[in-house]
Amino acid sequence: MTTVQAALAANQDEEERELGELAPAPVPADGTPAETESPAKRAAKALDAHFERVANSSSGGHTTDWNRASGLGDLCDRKLTYQRVIAPRQGWVTPWLQQIFSDGNDQERYWQRVLLEAGFKLDQTQQRLEWPAKRIRGHIDGVVTLPDDTSCVYEHKRLDANAWRGINRWQDFLRNDIYRHYPAQLGIYLLLYGKPNGLFCITAQGHYKWLDFSLDDPEALDYVEQAIQQAERVNTAIECGTLPNRLLDPSPCARCRYADVCLPDVVATEVDGVELIENETLERLLSQREINEAGHRAYVKADKTAKAILSGKPRAQCADWTISGKEVISRRVNTKAMPDDLRERYEVEGKSWRTTIKRTPK
Ligand code: SF4
Asked: What is the CATH number for 127?
């Protein structure tokens, strides 16, 4: 058992109690609001509960006979094989993922409107394209027709803001392990739709760029051919009941959702310096932490601003709140005012551990 696992096991009861405290309070079955809570607070709690329900109710997926065009171009053949033979478990759509999906759909509709308002024709939206011989399937975002009657296949992609800044031509996608399959996807759509030209609309936090992608470019065509060969390798592995090799450089494995089946011997140990931890309590804590983050930030900001307004008032009443305050005198050593040589004499080295937690980009 690793140190982390031991610590988690020892603190499990405490964490469960904390979780209970942090979890959104249930909305009364008869819809009667708790008297002491504001409508906004109750609305926030109900929304948290709604997202939790969505996450818990998402049905499991199913195995598929098709390679998703949107996945080809990935670094790992083995992952693409797992995507076909392992059904996603029930509840795999987390509240966070659900919001990403919804936001992506909203943005896609917005940019479709922009194209129409700009005078273009947009059709074939979400049309399914299939290549049975290669077992490749996908859905295009649409075909844009210009006033001169020329057209191109359109694909909207919402990116992380940092990645978005670094992507200015289609080749830049290839330098990013997470987005490198996008040109393969659009290229396959172009082949299947019989058009040489594609148009990416890439967006991030209100910013946008248009990138063109053409199969007339030999470099682009070569990349798409490699993606098709990848589909063929996956098909062969499935027909033969084998699995493609694991990645030689396992750095992407830390964010792979098949790591637990692919790397059972190293899960909960280490992959390229990254400890992979399987612990449902920790997963729940991280999820609760994320769900409550915005509320916590709003609380801290409101608390600070309200206390600034109330500073110097010993007793006050505002609506339902009773306020009291007093002057607190504290003494501290102003180390900044000390001469350097004196301060250095009293400086000691302290040790602490700083932990940063971020969502792994998908
Ligand atoms: S864990 Fe690594 S090697 Fe295994 S499927 Fe995922 S990315 Fe590929």
From this structure: 3.90.320.10
Structural contact between residues 32 and 42, judged by C-beta atoms closer than 8 angstroms: no
Residues spanned by the domain of 155: 67-245
Ligand 1: residues whose CB is within 6 Å? 76, 78-79, 82, 246-247, 250, 252-253, 256, 258-259, 262-263
Tens digit of each residue's pLDDT, the chain (362 residues)? 444 444 444 444 443 443 344 444 455 555 555 557 888 988 988 888 887 777 676 666 788 899 999 999 999 999 999 999 998 776 667 777 777 788 888 888 999 999 999 999 999 998 999 999 999 999 999 999 998 999 999 999 999 888 999 999 999 999 998 899 999 999 999 999 998 999 999 999 889 999 999 999 999 999 999 999 999 999 999 999 999 999 888 888 888 888 888 887 555 555 566 777 777 667 778 888 888 888 898 899 999 999 999 999 999 999 888 999 998 888 888 887 888 888 777 878 888 888 888 877 65
Centre of ligand 1 to C-alpha 206, Å, is: 33
In a domain, 50, yes or no: no
* 277, 169: one domain: no
What pTM did the predictor assign?
0.62
How far is Cα 224 from Cα 190, in angstroms, rounded to an integer? 10
Cα torsion for 179, 181, 187, 190, to the nearest 10°? -80
**Closest C-alpha to ligand 1, atom 4:** 262
Same-domain check for residues 85 and 179: yes
Look at residues 274, 295, 316 and tell me which one is the last residue of a structural domain.
295
User: Could you tell me if 194 and 260 lie in one domain?
Assistant: no
Rounded-to-integer distance, Cα 9 and Cα 38, Å:
38
User: End of a domain among 245, 276, 308?
Assistant: 245
User: Count of domains in the chain?
Assistant: 2
Residues 130 and 277 in one domain: no
Two structure tokens written together for 36: 């002491």
Residue 163 and residue 269 in one domain: no
Q: For residues 59 and 87, what is the distance between their CA atoms, to the nearest angstrom?
A: 11
H helices of 23-150, in order, are 39-57, 77-85, 95-117
Ligand 1 centroid–CA 90 distance in Å is: 21
